[in-house]
Amino acid sequence: MFKLNYKNVMSFLVISIFTLIFLLIIGRFMYIQFHGEVQAVDLVDYADRFRYVNSELDAERGEIYDQTGMVLAGNKTVYTLYAILDEGYSKNASESLHVENLQETANQLSSVINMDSDQIYNILENGKENDRFQVEFSHAGSALSTEQKDEIESLDLPGIYLTERPQRYYPNDKFASQVIGFTEMKLNEETGEEEEVGTYGVEGMYDEDLRGVNGSVSYKRDKYGYKLLNAEELIQSPEDGNDVYLTIDQKIQTFLEDAMTTVDEQYNPESIMAAVMDPKTGEVLAMSNRPSFDPNTKENIENWYNDVISSPFEPGSTMKIFTLSAAIEEGVYNGSDTYKSGRYRINENFRVIRDHNNGEGWGEITYNEGVQHSSNVAFAKILWEQLGPDQYKDYLESFHFNRATGIDLNGEKVGQLSYTYPMEQITTSFGQGSTFTPIQIMKAATALANEGKMVKPYVTSKIMDPKSKKALYEAETEYVGEPISADTAQQVKDLLESTVTSEEGTARRFQLENFSTFGKTGTAETPDPSGGYHSGRDSYVYSFIGMAPKEDPELMMYVAVEKPDLEGEYGSELTSYIYKTVMENSLHYLEIEPDQSTDQTVEKIDLNSIYGQSTHEVVSRLEEQGMTVTVVGEGEEIDESIPKEGSSAYPNQHILLKTNGTATMPDVTDWTLRDILSLVELVDMELDFIGEGFVTKQNLSVGAEITEDSHLIVELSSDYLEEPAEEQQDQKETEE
């Protein structure tokens, strides 16, 4: 008979307890296996959420182009540097995957990124002491270029890694920066992630079109959060943003930037604002301001405004265009009538209106002569005695001076029409008291180019789907009012032309060499915050609005220079330099037929029999005809040229010839950006340029072979201002 003893009982109890525990554990596992839950937590879902990670795939932001297809805002890949410090990351690896030698790593990295070795070492050491898995290197380790990335990888440093991301890039630096705008990284409150957002200019105006829709990728990760090898991926491709094409023409914009920089550097004005427009369509071909800024760095931004659309000011005598137009349209203007110039007031209770020559005037003169002299008295009398304040206010509203132009740029502001009291009504007639923006004045002046009809200005020509290449939006000319008749527009053009051609005209400096032009100068006082107006020649805003050619205007330009440092110069020397430089070059670039010349007839030369002809013979013939010729390559025959065969050119024009041999890099020192752009078009290579003016440096050596991978980088500088033509000693200077 089996006899129990103490040891057997204890053994039985222990075995039973462990068996019960084991059965409970097995049962629990079976339950979990069957139900997949622990305390109402779905383990499969929990594991998936831990092991799987969703990463956002950035959509590529749409690019911004000028109307010729040159990239004004594009994208480039940049890299962020980080270091893994956790030794566990190297577990079971055949080589070290974390940083081992902190000092050596710091010494090596300091030769590539903009941070000294001590700073790098401190970051690594601090991360190590605080058991951080990885560390980054602030600004110095972000936005690294491809060249820096390649150099870091060549160092083969354990634990050093790079991630890539897209970054907005503006290849032309300050070029039209206040039109193009820029992007900034901002926190998305819904996702908690930073995203690139357009906040200024076209970037801000069309941010939704440019941004696109981000995609995503899902994959399995290890305990450190890194993707497993051969892990399956679930990818939802991003939808890239749409491309925006502007009406800006890069060559005309370059002419404008160069001229403005020259004046800015020599005369240090408080500001310059200028724009070029096709007055028949409303397309803005160029627009710029000084001070400007580099949207790549956004450093030291002195002026956040696009002054052409955002800074109303008292425009001065450019407003006389619209007073004159209203009077002619109403039939109350008789240019042959005379009046006493110099001083005028409506009665003894009101202040005296004075002409700009200290109220001396020019005696008894006709109203047409008053227009040529830009007489304030003439326009005060036209407003008060002929037209009437109420009637003129109707015309101001018809010219839309009481509203925004609606230009497709963020930040447009409307000036203030101060027109309650008699003196406000009178001074508004010649551009004082009331304030307007340059774009308001330009929009109103388009009526002169379109037989009395105004057009709406715009800067965006189309929006394109980058994949299908289909236009999602195309701008059209929009007529927005008809304040005057075609006959009035013609009479005003004739009178404004006389301000340029007449000996008494205030705009004589604005004559173009090969084209007829008309326009109006403006010299506006600047308000003193303490009351009244500043005094002195350095305290004015000097401006001009003009068009050319006169009978069929192709271009309109407005330019204003505020408070320049003048010594012996007149303010109109600065504005006329910008106007003449930009208009002459732009009209020739657009191949507009000249309708006049100053001293001698300038005839175009037909460019015939070039392609397939002997290089030596073609060069000799063109140089004999007065051309400046550059040959690209060493071949014996000519393959291509700019201008093209069959077109025409002016004497002294720069002709580029490409031979049938290997294309080689010419010496481009002292070339204009216009010439550089022609060269790039001829040989089809990439271009980046820095600065404005004339070429001082080039990265490709003279004679180097030009291939499809060639990338030309040039530096330009502008360090002089053309001297104005000397006047005859006995010719009286007339200055508003």
Automatic annotation (TrEMBL):
* Pathway assigned to this chain's UniProt record: Cell wall biogenesis; peptidoglycan biosynthesis
Q: Which UniProt keywords apply?
A: Membrane, Transmembrane, Transmembrane helix
Q: Which Pfam families match?
A: PASTA (PF03793), PBP_dimer (PF03717), Transpeptidase (PF00905)
Where is the protein localized? Answer: Membrane
Q: Which reaction does it catalyse?
A: Preferential cleavage: (Ac)2-L-Lys-D-Ala-|-D-Ala. Also transpeptidation of peptidyl-alanyl moieties that are N-acyl substituents of D-alanine
Q: Which CDD domains match?
A: PASTA_Pbp2x-like_2
**Which residues are in the PASTA domain?**
659-718
GO function term, MF aspect, one: serine-type D-Ala-D-Ala carboxypeptidase activity
Regions that span the bilayer: 12-31
For this record, the Gene Ontology CC terms, alphabetical, are: plasma membrane
Q: Which GO terms describe its biological process?
A: cell wall organization; peptidoglycan biosynthetic process
Enzyme Commission code(s) on record: 3.4.16.4
UniProt main location, coarse: membrane
Q: Which family does it belong to?
A: Belongs to the transpeptidase family.
Protein name, as recorded: serine-type D-Ala-D-Ala carboxypeptidase
UniProt source species: Aquisalibacillus elongatus
What lineage is on file? Answer: Bacteria, Bacillati, Bacillota, Bacilli, Bacillales
